[in-house]
Amino acid sequence: MAGRRAAGRPPGEPRRVAYLYLLPAFVIYAAFLLFPIGRAVQFSLYDWDGLSVGRWAGLDNYAAILADEGLRAAFGHALVLVVFYALIPLAVGLALAAVLNHAKVRGLGFFRTVVFLPQVVAMVVVAVAWRRVYAPDGTLNALLGALGLDSLTRGWLGDYAFALPAVGVVGTWVETGLVTVLLLAGMSRVPPDLYEAARLDGAGAVREFFAVTLPSVRGEIAVALTLTVIAALRTFDLVYVTTRGGPGTSTTVPSYEVYHRAFGLGQVGSAAAVGVTLALLIFVISFGINRFADRGLT
Amino acid sequence: MTPSTRRTGRTPAIALLAAAALALTACAPGSSAPPAPGSQAPSAVRTDAAALGDVTLTVWDQEVRGGQAAQMKQLNDAFQAKYPNIKLNRVSRSFDDLNTTLRLALSGNEPPDVVEANNGRSSMGAFVKAGQLLPLDAYADAYGWKQRYPESVLRYSRYSADGKSFGEGNLYGLPQVGEVVGVFYNKAKLTKLGLQPPKTWADFETALGTAKTAGEVPLQLGNLDKWPAIHVFGTVQGRHVPAEQISALAFGRKGASWTTPENTAAAEQLVGWVGKGYFAKGFNGQGYDPSWQAFGKGEGVFLIAGTWLLADLEKALGDDLGFMLPPGVSADAAPVATGGTGLPFAITAKSPHPDAAAAYVNFITSADAMKVLTSTGNLPVAETGEQSVQAGPQQDVFTAFGTVTGKDGLVPYLDYATPTFADTLGAALQDLLAEKATPQEFLATLEKDYKTFTESN
């Protein structure tokens, strides 16, 4: 051990000084992130209304979450949203980016901006706009009417079968731009000689995509999936503005429950428990995605 | 990975554990605030505000829109002019912002002196339970509030000292304005259909049928936001269920039941209207604001909604707009309507100047203040019938509110019942109106929430 240190020590100042440099950032990180997380975990172990003195509840709040049918449904809805927020945008984004990258269209910068635009607009604004689109007298129904498809018109956000997909489509619309731009950046880094080699070996466009493009953007896919899956699981603003969890309870999501319990019902302990559970779920899923991507690279 | 990167990777995890351990060993949440001083009213209350010395009052209100903001400014200026020794520090926020921040503000060591607190169990009820509000009964006696305000209005600010029973007990706040859910109608449409404003509930239902046959939208509704149908159901319920039963259910008191033949009849009538196509198409997917705006544009003969829409609808429809209390089973039946008050002004238990605070609350709810409220387009909660307003929809509203409070016919909003009832009822009504639930299933859902709460309260 001693010998290793003498030989293996890098030149320059002793290592431990580095921690001193990290300290200012760590203090801020601890004060604004670690401490609140610790407090949230603490709250989740109490039965607390936010006003009077809390009562120790142990894991009761967590047990109640597991037993709560409505809350399980909310987590289920969040998983459905993952399909709309992450998987569909990924499929669309891959196709779109491959075409844009390949075709070398004129005005690529313009298309990139247009596709990315939904990301720039605040989610609340997006939600208000889509609420109008989906209204019984809204744009979507007007469009269907003009096509002679009157039988399909309905109040989309008030329909039990269509409300959740309708909310999901908004997510797809928002996230596709982000995914496309990320993948486009990745694809433009692929050395042209790889494509040349593939073509010399007789690969067509499709084969080229799967053999060259897809493996090259694995890292970007991981980043895109991580971002969009997190966005899907913590959806709050979109549901809050469009449906408030309705019709009935068909579009409730966990984040909405956190807000509702803490500020509406005054069940701060239970709200914290839902929040911690959601954070853990997000952590596990994004950890899985990154493990998958890392393993693919080595 | 090299050993050194692995080591740095572990550090945050250790720090996180340390932070968590630190937090866990700290005392229980909420215990850092000192206990509230005895929430008894001072034995001798002082009403001579000018003699209270130099005092600064912090007031949190939500009077930020149009006529609300105007009346508050006018009354505050008048108060300052009359009592220069009392300085007002006004903090005003929107309703939603106030609701979400008040809880934290009240649990702090220096809460505001006067706050507008929502009546419901999860707001005012929770604050009373935590001993954060001052009972105002001594001031009510000193200032004669009980003579000026009808009991059916005051009870919306009453709680037992432990915060458990709502609608009775100590008085914890005083509202400025009133509101009642009634029937807005489009006079031009009624004339075209050859109809008079209905005098009985049966007339009303017939009028809906006539409107439907003539190709009009009989009853405008947008229920995407979940709560609007609560007002429609409450109105239908008031025709079928005795008022005292509705009050017991809506205040979440023991001993009532949702699964009665009367409630079933109300739910059946409501869902029957869906079957007959009386509501606007796609109502469960239409927002509340677009729906009343559509009524303002002439889509819809009737709209069951609260008086808070008066100013906006009057702007859109002018003298074509009419308003009435929901008609009774017979023309001479006692009026029953869902309604309540604006947010009551309450005084915090930790306020060092309760006498000055009470003087302020009294000033903004005095007979003179009611005149200011009228002139700024609000509906004053007391002495409503004595205000002079122009004939037209505004007079309709004043007459309606004066009549229903005069005969103690106001019944509370159904979502007051339990802390979770707004959600339970909102979702259940969407299910009922979409015919996903039968009236029996609908009432069973409500009964479960109501019973769970009353048995544990």
Automatic annotation (TrEMBL), chain A:
Q: Which UniProt keywords apply?
A: Cell membrane, Membrane, Transmembrane, Transmembrane helix, Transport
Its membrane topology: Multi-pass membrane protein
One biological process term from GO is: transmembrane transport
Domain ABC transmembrane type-1, which positions? 75-289
Q: Which PROSITE patterns is this protein grouped with?
A: ABC_TM1 (PS50928)
Recorded hits in Gene3D superfamilies, A to Z, give:
MetI-like
Taxonomic lineage: Bacteria, Bacillati, Actinomycetota, Actinomycetes, Streptosporangiales
The record's family statement is: Belongs to the binding-protein-dependent transport system permease family.
User: Which InterPro entries does the record match to this protein?
Assistant: MetI-like, MetI-like_sf, UgpAE/MalFG_permease
Against SUPFAM superfamilies, the record matches this protein to: MetI-like
- Protein name per Swiss-Prot or TrEMBL: Raffinose/stachyose/melibiose transport system permease protein
The domain of life is Bacteria
Pfam (any one): BPD_transp_1
UniProtKB/TrEMBL annotation, chain B:
Keyword Metal-binding in annotation: no
User: Keywords of this protein's UniProt record, alphabetized?
Assistant: Signal
Mark the transmembrane ranges: none
Q: What PROSITE patterns does this protein's entry cite?
A: PROKAR_LIPOPROTEIN
Signal peptide: which range, if any?
1-28
Q: Which domain of life is it from?
A: Bacteria
**What is the protein's name according to its record?**
Raffinose/stachyose/melibiose transport system substrate-binding protein
